[in-house]
Amino acid sequence: MANTAGFGPHLTLDLADCNPEKLADFDLVFDVLNNLPDLIGMTKITQPYVFKYAGLVPEDKGITGFIVIAESHISIHTFQDKNYVFIDLFSCKPFDYEYAKQYLIKTFESKSPTIHVVERGIDFPRSAPQRPIPDVRPDVSDATEAVVAQDHVYTLAKSA
Fold this sequence. Notes:
single chain; alpha+beta; S-adenosylmethionine decarboxylase; 6-stranded antiparallel sheet; two-stranded antiparallel sheet; 3 helices; 38% strand; globular
């Protein structure tokens, strides 16, 4: 018999007052998209697709990236001249969105985050129990910055 506990969480982050150097860093956006699925127990289907964007409004330039995961997707849209980034993380299974939230806020050094978590598909019929959330992540709760480089996540401790 199907369980109707919902399809899964959709985490959205509107991160204001970010470090513009981080927002303009193509490699950082690629690395976040490449590493975050593993950190929250998701399965990458594709490599990250990341590109620089410059449109009709010059100050809207930035980096846009997307990765397809078996559970759904993760997207990042930076606006380096406005110190802003939009991030969506949608999954058909539970994940530690508190961890993901802290990781992303620290990575982009947001001083003014707005976070929303919506349970999608509340009436979606489930057929099988969900896998437990793995705990394979570094602790970023006491760090001032999370740095992603060469498939590793480094956290820099708060200075005393």
